[in-house]
Automatic annotation (TrEMBL):
Record InterPro entries: AB_hydrolase_fold, CocE/Ser_esterase, Galactose-bd-like_sf, Xaa-Pro-like_dom, Xaa-Pro_dipept_C, Xaa-Pro_dipeptidyl-ppase/CocE
The organism's taxonomic lineage, starting at the top: Bacteria, Bacillati, Bacillota, Clostridia, Eubacteriales
Record-given protein name: Hydrolase CocE/NonD family protein
Domain annotation Xaa-Pro dipeptidyl-peptidase C-terminal: ranges: 330-564
Organism, scientific name: Ruminiclostridium papyrosolvens DSM 2782
UniProt keyword list: Hydrolase
GO molecular function: dipeptidyl-peptidase activity
Length: 580
């Protein structure tokens, strides 16, 4: 989004007055108004149906109460579409809360959700949200909410903050008192819709019975705007264009520039209060998606005693709308929204898919008791720039290797001499220097190679995933001592520590969690570059790199660079019999 419409406003963030940048959202307009606009005007406009408060039947057996006004505690009015079964009764409510329009198909051409066949999801469904066409036929009501500032709802929109949480609280308590509601509500949806759930649950609305955040970024700074300390604005700005309303929205990319360090009120306001989330939670995560870190951290940090995690290799949309997973989610909701005794509690607390190659799994939905796995054995593979390998033992001879920071890359390989499963967190310790500059951006992929050195990616929609990833801007190498562990370093993002040209410094790089199986003779590769190497991978992610000249990696002797891997031993072994 351009500079047009950007203003400074002072807003309340968790009781503190904070000055933030806000930008004009896409202006809602009718199809006729849109057609009358110039090309330049259309860049800032989006077709949005006018308010039309009515009750009608979008499909047989389903009633929609459209554009229902709901007043928040400060007098702001938001609007919601509520779908419910046609028959009279009291129904539990499933809520979709996000800035995606509550009627996405009005005024738009029908579009497909990647990996999901056309007509799988009804036109009543918000993007990445529970489909009323499915849930209303199973005895639930569904609320598609336009939050504060979105669509025709009053006010300005502040993304993923405490205000969103408070408004969610107010809506839930309003809904619980309606004649059609049984007094029990849930939050559901994936990606952006999942992210808001943690902020609302943090406010502890009494009538929120459970939540199902399927794929959820939860640390906006570390996982979205500044992964590894490297700014990433383009994708966020792209998503912001989905927000449509008459007023202004919080511009997180601009506010990242205004508040570049994490220890300030602006970023703290976007952190869920994990100790306040105590309701039942069903969290999913994908090993190959940028929501991975946030999803697993959310499961680990929330204080619910009834929480479940399923980690899979598939992309979020086909996973969310598959028949098998919908039926399982129905059991979860039936247990806590309808109070059915359906055996849900016997569901393993953690299930993981252990990936192999392409679209194949070594294991699917294997039950576990914790994450990371308690039986994990951490092992260091020591980088050796003498022959670009990794070794089981520390390397005595010092060596170095360099690459052009804009176009080059280096790789270090290690061959497994037995079947090996890696599940959990890796970390990469590197000794590095920028030959002629004061900073360097490092992009890491951890990859699997065949016995003859061929790249063996996991594929999604037929596209090769670049590999388990990590990123590091070296001037942001300082770690947060409270958040970091021996197996997972976490950057502090409280200061910049620029380099002197040629200065050698150690960096500990957080690698996203994974689960993958290497057969005997297959190899693991560490790929290091100054840019994100995606090949054919389809996600439109970009980072604003700051590199010049050569990067140098030092290994051996006093520069003990290594990859630490989470080896999972067999649960049972008797001779050649192995049970994993």
């Amino acid at each position: 989004m351009s500079e047009k419409g950007r203003i400074l406003k002072t807003v309340d963030m968790s009781g503190e007055q904070v000055e933030i940048y806000m930008t004009k959202m896409m202006t809602p307009c009718t199809p006729e108004e849109y057609q009358a606009m110039s090309v330049d005007e259309r860049e800032y406009a989006k077709i949005q149906p006018p308010l039309n408060q009515r009750t009608y039947m979008p499909e047989d057996g389903i009633i929609c109460m459209q554009d229902v006004p709901v007043k928040m505690r400060d007098g702001v009015t938001i609007y919601v579409d509520i779908y419910k079964p046609e028959s009279e009764g009291k129904y539990p409510l499933i809520i979709s809360w996000s800035f995606y329009g509550k009627r996405p198909f009005d005024g738009q051409s029908e579009w497909q959700i990647m990996g999901v066949p056309p007509q799988t999801v009804s036109n009543m469904s918000k993007f990445e949200s529970p489909d009323p066409g499915y849930w209303c036929r199973r005895g639930y009501a569904v609320a598609n909410v336009d939050p504060r500032g979105i669509g025709h709802s009053d006010g300005d929109f502040v993304q993923f903050g405490t205000q969103d949480g408070k408004d969610g609280y107010d809506f839930i308590e309003w809904a619980a008192e309606q004649s059609w509601c049984n007094g029990r509500t849930a939050l559901s949806g994936n990606s952006c819709v999942a992210m808001t759930q943690w902020r609302i649950a943090s406010q502890q609305p009494p009538h929120l019975a459970c939540m199902a955040p399927w794929e959820s970024t939860t640390d906006m700074y570390r996982e979205s705007l500044c992964e590894g300390g490297i700014p990433a604005h383009s994708f966020v700005r792209l998503v912001m264009k989905e927000a449509c309303g008459p007023n202004y929205m919080d511009s997180t990319p601009d506010n990242f520039e205004k508040y570049p360090f994490i220890n300030c009120a602006y970023w703290k306001d976007k952190d869920p209060m994990w100790d306040k989330v105590t309701i039942p939670v069903y969290q999913t995560a994908c090993w190959n998606h940028f929501h991975l870190r946030g999803s697993i951290n959310a499961f680990r940090k929330c204080k619910s005693r009834k929480k479940w995690l399923r980690v899979h290799r598939n992309f979020e949309w086909p996973d969310a709308y598959s028949n098998e997973n919908l039926e399982e989610l129905d059991k979860f909701f039936a247990r806590y929204l309808k109070l059915e005794r359906n055996g849900w509690e016997l569901t393993p607390k953690i299930r993981i898919e252990v990936q192999d190659t392409d679209e194949f799994n070594y294991m699917t939905n294997r039950p576990e008791e914790s994450f990371p796995l308690k039986r994990t054995e951490y092992k260091k593979l020591y980088l050796d720039a003498n022959d670009m390998s990794m070794k089981d033992k520390p390397v005595n001879n010092e060596a170095s290797v360099s690459y052009d920071s804009e176009t080059g890359e280096v790789t270090f390989d290690y061959c497994f001499d037995e079947d090996t499963e890696l599940t959990g967190y890796m970390k990469l310790r590197l000794y590095v220097a920028a030959e002629s500059y004061n900073d360097m951006d490092l992009f890491i992929n951890i990859q699997k190679l065949s016995t003859d050195g061929k790249f063996l990616p996991v594929t999604i929609f037929g596209e090769p995933h670049p590999g388990v990833w990590g990123k590091m801007r070296v001037s942001r190498r300082k770690l947060d001592e409270k958040l970091s562990t021996d197996y997972c370093p976490v950057q502090a993002h409280t200061c910049d520590e620029k380099l002197e040209p040629g200065e050698i410094v150690p960096v500990d790089i957080e690698i996203a969690p994974t689960s993958r199986f290497w057969h005997k003779g297959q190899q693991i590769r560490v790929q290091v570059a100054g840019r994100y190497i995606r090949n054919d991978w389809f996600e439109p992610l970009m980072w604003d790199t700051d590199n010049k000249g050569n990067h140098i990696i030092y290994t051996g002797g006093g520069h003990e660079s290594y990859l630490q891997i989470p080896v999972i031993p067999p649960r049972f072994q008797d001779g050649d019999i192995i049970i994993r």
